[in-house]
Amino acid sequence: MEEAAEIALTVNGETVSARVEARRHLVDFLRLDLGLTGSRLGCEHGVCGACTVRVDGAIVRGCLMLAVQADGADVWTIEGLSDAGEIAGLQDAFVARNALQCGYCTPGMLLTAAEMLKAGRRMTRPEIREFLSGNFCRCTGYHAIVDAIEAVMAERFRD
Amino acid sequence: MKAPRFSYVRPESLDSVLELLAEHEGEARILAGGQSLMPTLNMRLSEPRLLIDINRIDALKGISLEDGTVRIGALARHAEVLESPLAAEHLPLIADAMPHVAHVAVRNRGTFGGSIALADPAAELPACAVALNASFVLASTRGRRTVPARSFFHGLYETELAEDELLVEARIPAIAPGYRSAFMEFARRHGDFALAGVCCHARVEGCVLRDVSLACFGGEDRPRFAAAASAAAEGRAWSEEVKDAVKAALGGELEPEGTFHASAETRVHLAQVLAARAVDRMLAAG
Ligand SMILES: Cc1cc2nc3c(=O)[nH]c(=O)nc-3n(C[C@H](O)[C@H](O)[C@H](O)COP(=O)(O)OP(=O)(O)OC[C@H]3O[C@@H](n4cnc5c(N)ncnc54)[C@H](O)[C@@H]3O)c2cc1C
Ligand code: FES
Ligand code: FES
Fold first, then answer.
1. Does domain B58-173 have CATH number 3.30.200.120?
2. CA nearest B164: which of B41, B78, B50?
3. Class of the CATH-defined domain B7-53
4. What does the pLDDT look like over A11-28, one tens digit per residue?
5. How many angstroms away from the CA of A96 is the closest CA of chain B?
6. Domains in chain A and their CATH numbers?
7. What is the DSSP letter of A32?
8. Are B159 and B166 contacting, i.e. CB atoms less than 8 angstroms apart?
9. B198-236, pLDDT tens digit by residue?
């Protein structure tokens, strides 16, 4: 029972071990301890989705998970998914459709969109909007973002 | 903001969770999905000395069916229940409600037991449990007990759980032949907590409802089994007249608080409209 603990996990495919304070949440660990500043903090209470990261294959709110809880986990951030090329199609579509302005929400949007693609089918616009309902964008609005995701689905999942 | 300092422990067995709860009574908090607890820590609305992380306790996981009762482990994630074929077949009310619970990333971590233990009055799952007459198994070093959902919720974030108790699982009667259910809510944005919602469950014979169970949530301090409205629909063929009787009964028994999101009258009105639509939908499903 301590206020700090040793953890070992993989981040973007690389093994990492560290001693972290129990109260440190996953995104502060990624940003402040590992220098991975692609994951953002907006509200820090679960509402905005800027902190979205992938843990053991599923997206989570990085601000609502403690770093100590990620002990043994497989964590992927926007940096790793970009380098691996997994989301290149989505990134191109976001640029082509002007689906970002300041870019603050974009990593979270892209991780959520990547999770959507895992369903392996084209979704309707209302379905895309519903899936994105946990991610806020304060400048672009959602229309262009939905356009970009819809375009990638149309390209990837031809019926 | 950042969470205050606390100690953290991740026990490997149920017994050690219960021992830790007993030893640190009042100063420890259970950490399940963290989707409600972490925001309160980050905002410093709560400052526990110790967090007991139950995420690796296998005894609290899983969904299973035994003798007509579905057991949902406290640690079953919302996403797991949403995708469970067993829940879809035997608990259609909960399957119907689950897409309304938060957003994908939150459902990937949030747990069934966490939602019940939190007892947010606008939450979907406590209301479903009340409508379906579920019960909850609570454990402590003093022993185990089973508490009906209809007496578990005491008020705003207040439940029957003692400070040294852990919610282990929910036991929910599987839907019986001839029964149908419907879930409806009104929220400002998809995945937000509801301004008003209803859960309806009954045996349907043609257009006659029997063994009616209507539960409402979202306006009052806890989910309510709407006894008068359920009785108003009991054994009668669904008609405009019965619909009005159900609405009038709801108007009599609901006592919601008005907030800046919706006045008390608006919430009662929403519950009335949703209840009538839920029954319409239940009958149409046949
Ligand atoms: C943006 C956002 C939107 C949301 N929208 C909704 C919504 O629309 N509807 C809805 O219902 N919920 C919503 N939630 C809440 C979500 O469903 C939570 O997951 C849930 O309410 C709590 O579950 P948890 O597992 O995360 O619990 P935690 O946050 O870990 O715990 C919550 C509380 O319950 C206690 N606790 C947890 N498990 C147990 C147990 N087994 N025994 C005893 N005590 C326990 C904890 O100590 C704590 O006090 C939302 C959350 C967020 C962040
Ligand atoms: S920073 Fe995590 S949801 Fe806003
Ligand atoms: S692009 Fe600025 S918040 Fe979305």
1. no
2. B50
3. alpha beta
4. 999 999 999 999 999 999
5. 26
6. 4-81 (3.10.20.30), 87-156 (1.10.150.120)
7. I
8. no
9. 999 999 999 999 999 999 999 899 999 999 999 999 999
Among B47, B52, B104, B109, which would you mutate to test the A interface (most chain A Cβ atoms within 10 Å of its Cβ)? B104
Among the bound ligands, the one closest to the CA of A49: 2
Pair of tokens at residue A1 = 């029972």
What pLDDT digit, counting tens, does each position of B41-83 carry?
999 998 999 999 999 999 999 999 999 999 999 999 999 999 9
Closest CA to B171 of B230, B91, B54: B91
Q: Mention the CATH class of domain B180-284.
A: alpha beta
Q: How many residues does chain B have?
A: 286
Mean pLDDT, residues B164-185 taken together = 97
Segment (H or E) for B135: strand B135-140
pTM value is 0.97
Nearest ligand, measured from the Cα of B108: 1
- Give the whole-angstrom CA distance, residue B170 versus residue A89: 43
Q: Which of B7, B101, B98 is nearest to B50 (CA)?
A: B7
Ligand 2 atom nearest to CA at A52: 2
User: A130 — contact with chain B (CB < 8 Å)?
Assistant: yes
The tokens 């940096």 sit on which residue? A79
